[in-house]
Structure formats: structure tokens, C-alpha cells
Amino acid sequence: MTQERKKQMKIVLQMVSGYGGEFRSWRLPEAKADAYTDMDLYVEMAQLAEKGKIHALFMADTPALTNHLETESPMHSMDPLIAMTAVARATKRIGLVGTFSTTFNEAYNLARHLKTLDVISHGRVGWNAVTTSTSAAAANFGQHLASRQERYGRAHEFIEAVQGLWRSWGEGVYLHDKETGQFADMGQIRPIHYQGTYIQTSGPLPIPPSEQGQPPIFQAGPSPDGIHLAGRFASGVYANPFTIEEAKAYRQMLRAEAEKNGRQADEINVFTGFMFTIADSKEEALARRRQLLEFDQDELAQRLAYLGAMVGLNFQGIDPYQPLPQSWLQLARANPGDPRSPRALEVLKEGYSPIDTLAHGVINYHPVVVGTATDVADFLQEWFEAGASDGFSIVPDLAHDGIKAFVEQVVPLLQDRGLFHQDYEGQTLREHLDLPYQYGRQE
Ligand SMILES: Cc1cc2nc3c(=O)[nH]c(=O)nc-3n(C[C@H](O)[C@H](O)[C@H](O)COP(=O)(O)O)c2cc1C
């Protein structure tokens, strides 16, 4: 591993439901309105991301309906496993990281699905193992949501069991030798008899290793329990800090937790969630986001009220399309209860109207850059060089043109600056992410 390569950022692209991270972007003129069900389009987007050497596609998922489809597109693909399978067959190098809950799955089923996909994709699969804290998901499985302690207790056992099942077929014993008549060495295909409090499974799982051995584990969830789970198992963490300082502290905690669990700090890669709208000028990018806001006037009113609360002002009765008067800005204070407030106040103080401040994405789920490709590259560079993140989990507002803009405009800038690789490091996801081959349980 060269010094230069060590310093390069890793990027995964979030494939949301086929549109992007803005749930009303399906209405933009550039959008394909039925992208949710159009797997050909999904595949095309994945192929484009692969051209841009994006390390992996990343699919979040919750097994429940979690937003209002009257006006918004879904938050997730129809089914991540099936979408990943379709994409795997039409791509060659890009990694495929899917989110699968440890609370609402059975270890044997999931071990089987992921290993099969890992084998047929030639070692390109990763598993984002989340505990899921949505009551609607619990209801879909005839359950009430278990306590955090129980969900994390189950998560530890679940991952141990899955990794055990993956190892239950020994290495080098898939013989399929017509001469000798031996298909496999049964002496090396053994049950695991896993007996936990939450998970019991016998195995063996009759699937040989992939080229990367087995999928690396990702994790998302910032509680101390979440950090402990990541410290034990995760090679990647999907994080959602809003400031560089917050991100650095979180990354340090994760690295320390990895070491506490007998691993190297560098074995954990933090992927900070980041959203963007790219256009030829900042004004053009803002115009697109104003349009997104105006698709739903009721929600716009709610967002304005929330923005007011973020900076300690009451926006009732104001013209939200005009910058705030100086006298108001002097009274404004960032609300310490929301880490996004300082940025909101900063944008208002730059002279943007409340509507344009919202258009900057100041109350989105992740930090947002609205501007040119250079603005996006500058943001990524600043966070990366500050040691805030090992990489990014990027989310375009609209996938259809956003992926293209990132791949064609931002990637070359990052490459010219020596911040992003020129090509994939190898064939497998582990090789792309500089992770060692692993087969079996993380001890
Ligand atoms: C950045 C991020 C992404 C997440 N993505 C998902 C997801 O796709 N599906 C899911 O069921 N839960 C997801 N979660 C929720 C976690 O699974 C977890 O239930 C939640 O964060 C509560 O756990 P915690 O107390 O450790 O934060 C996500 C959490 C974070 C912070």
C-alpha cells in the first residue's frame, strides 16, 4: 500500500428509490417519473457510477413504509437484495452494499442470501448491519419494538452467527472433480451449532467462499451500543455528523473502539453522509432546490417555521423571499438543540432569504452542498483533509442527472487533486476498500 493511496477518499453512492435524496425530485423535468419500478434505469445508474470508479453502491433499507407517498417518492428501493442482484449481473467492479436489519431477519436466511450474492458478484457485496428502531417495521413482523439493549444483544449474536455460517463451508473444499467423483470435502463442511440468547442456528450453509471470502460488515447508529457493535465488527460506518468537529470526534471514538476490540483503528472506514445539487452556477443550483421546496406548500410553511425556531426567530407574517433585516439578524441565535442551526444562521447572515436558506439544504438529513462541481469537490476535500472522514456516502438530489454530474465533473477534480483513485484497486469490494480477506468470525 503506497503512502499516496492511503490518503485517498472512498466514496459510496446511495441508491435511494431510483430518484435521489430529495423525495420530491421525481417531479423535476429531468426525472423519470416511474424510476421506482424501472430496474433498467437502476442498472444504468450503477453502470455510470462504475465508470466513475465509485467504490460501491449503498442501499439503505427499512422493512416498512416510512414516508408519505401522496407527494413523496419512497425512501428505499422496492427490495434492496433483488435490486443488488439485478445490478450485480450488469456490472463488473463496483461494490454493492445493502442494508439488512439484524432485528427483522433470520440469521440463516440472510447469511444465505448475502453469501450467494457475494459468490455470483465475484466478491463485491457488503452488509450494512443495522438494528432498526422503527415501530412500523416491528409491526410488520408481529412484534413491538424491542429495547435498544435487546436489539443490540441480538445484533451481536446475529453477526456472529452469520459469520459462523459463512465459515461453515471450508476453504478450498469445493472440489467438483469429475475424475474422482468428489463434489466437496464433507469433512470441511460442518455445522456451527450456534446457541445464543436470541439466535440459534445449526448450519452448515452449503455455499463456498467468494473471491473476497465473505462480505465486509458496515454499521449505522451512533449510540454507545452502536459504536461498540461497529468496534467489534464494522469495516465501514455510515455516519451523519453535521460539522467537521462532530465528525472528527465520532471517527476518533470508532477508531478507539476498534482498538479496544483488538483491531487496528484503520480497519474502520467512516463514510459521512453528504448530499448535493450540482449546476453550472450556484444560482442555478439554488433555483432547482427552490423548485423542489415549492412542490409542497404545506411542507414549505412547516420548514419555514422550523427554520425560524432554529435561529430563535418567529417568521410568521414575513416575506420569506426577502433577506431578513439587520435588526432581526442581530437578535438571531443558533439553537443549541439542533447541530444544523449554526449553518442555518450563517446562510441567513450571508444575506440569503429564508426560502433560499432552506434551498441550501440547512435542514436536510446530511450536510448539503448546493453549487458547482468545484464547490462539491472543495467540501469533500476540506472534510477529508481535516480527518473528519475516510470517505463519503454521497446522495444526489436527483439520481438521473446527479450521478452523471458527480462522475463527469466532480470525480475528475478529485482525481486531479490526488484525492480519489484513478481506477479500482482490484476485483472485490475488500480490495477496493483496502480491507484484508476475511473468512469466518471476527474474533
Ligand atoms: C446514518 C444512519 C443510517 C441508518 N440507516 C438505517 C437503515 O437504512 N435502515 C434501518 O433500519 N435503520 C437505519 N438506521 C437506524 C439504526 O439501525 C438504529 O436503529 C438507530 O440509529 C438507533 O440506534 P442507535 O441508538 O445506535 O442510534 C440508520 C442510522 C443512522 C445513524
UniProtKB/TrEMBL annotation:
**Keyword terms of this UniProt record:** Flavoprotein, FMN, Monooxygenase, Oxidoreductase
Residue span, Luciferase-like domain: 38-388
Q: Does the keyword Flavoprotein apply?
A: yes
* Highest taxon listed in the record's lineage: Bacteria
Q: Which Pfam families would you find in this protein's record?
A: Bac_luciferase (PF00296)
Q: Under the GO molecular function aspect, what terms does this record hold?
A: monooxygenase activity; oxidoreductase activity, acting on paired donors, with incorporation or reduction of molecular oxygen
Q: Where does FMN bind?
A: 61, 99, 152, 223
InterPro entries per UniProt: Diverse_substr_monoxygenases (IPR051260), Luciferase-like_dom (IPR011251), Luciferase-like_sf (IPR036661), NTA_MOA (IPR016215)
Give a yes or no for keyword Zinc-finger in this entry. no
Q: Which CDD domains match?
A: Nitrilotriacetate_monoxgenase
Gene3D superfamilies reported in the protein's UniProt record: Luciferase-like domain
Q: Which SUPFAM superfamilies match?
A: Bacterial luciferase-like (SSF51679)
Record-listed E.C. numbers:
1.14.-.-
Q: What EC class does the entry list? A: oxidoreductase
> Its family?
Belongs to the NtaA/SnaA/DszA monooxygenase family.
Its recorded name reads NtaA/DmoA family FMN-dependent monooxygenase
Give the organism the record lists: Streptococcus cuniculipharyngis
The root-end lineage is:
Bacteria, Bacillati, Bacillota, Bacilli, Lactobacillales
